[in-house]
Amino acid sequence: NAGVTQTPKFRILKIGQSMTLQCTQDMNHNYMYWYRQDPGMGLKLIYYSVGAGITDKGEVPNGYNVSRSTTEDFPLRLELAAPSQTSVYFCASSHGNIQYFGAGTRLSVL
Amino acid sequence: DQQVKQNSPSLSVQEGRISILNCDYTNSMFDYFLWYKKYPAEGPTFLISISSIKDKNEDGRFTVFLNKSAKHLSLHIVPSQPGDSAVYFCAASAKIAAGNKLTFGGGTRVLVKP
User: Fold this and answer.
1) Residues near B53 by Cβ (< 8 Å), separated by ≥ 6?
2) CA of B83: how far to CAs of A100, A103, B59, B113, in Å?
3) With an 8 Å Cβ cutoff, is A44 touching chain B?
4) Which of residues 61-80 of A touch B (CB under 8 A)?
């Protein structure tokens, strides 16, 4: 079972560049989430979605955008990368209270 | 404003002994609590959970205790094994919150020495 798949695993961006972090799940979960984890810190929610076509902001949404055109996919877009967005990004999906996470994307903005 | 706190950033324990991880929360609307385990370069994986209607949940070597009056939960691992060396996150959710959102603590790094 693939579960939650994130691509790419690593990326280095220059300040001002844009990119899309991909996330796909094969568990037919309605709920999907994007988190970021900074060194020594817990996970902070960026955006979440309760189903295709429905998204909402989490705790730290500034500088990011999301879309949810299908149940499976929940891409995260960075339009103008800034050094403050250097972090590890995790995508998750859930059915009920338990969230299942991807392996993460490590992003550095230099 | 940290609603979920893990005050011990690290814990070192001898193999075979008990590991006790602690977590405190401030939001009285939280009604479901989870522990996740994370290895380096991997995503968090679900370990064990507890509903606010219970005060204890056990799964093999892992037991979670919930003290609602103190807004405190703990994870006991016994006996601890070297493979338990990881970062453990406490998380909480509120039924009324849209999307089953989780609020995470900052994590506790556990090192189990052989």
Assistant:
1) none
2) 21, 19, 17, 10
3) yes
4) none
What's the rounded Cα separation, in Å, for the pair B32 and B51?
Answer: 5
Question: Strand B19-25 and strand B4-5: pairing?
Answer: antiparallel
Beta strand extents in chain B (DSSP E only): 4-5, 10-14, 19-25, 32-38, 45-51, 56-59, 62-67, 72-77, 86-93, 102-104, 108-113
Residue type, A26: D
Average pLDDT over every residue of A100-110: 97
Structure tokens at A97: 């209270």
User: What pLDDT digit, counting tens, does each position of A52-61 carry?
Assistant: 999 999 999 9
Nearest residue on chain A to B106, alpha-carbon basis: A42
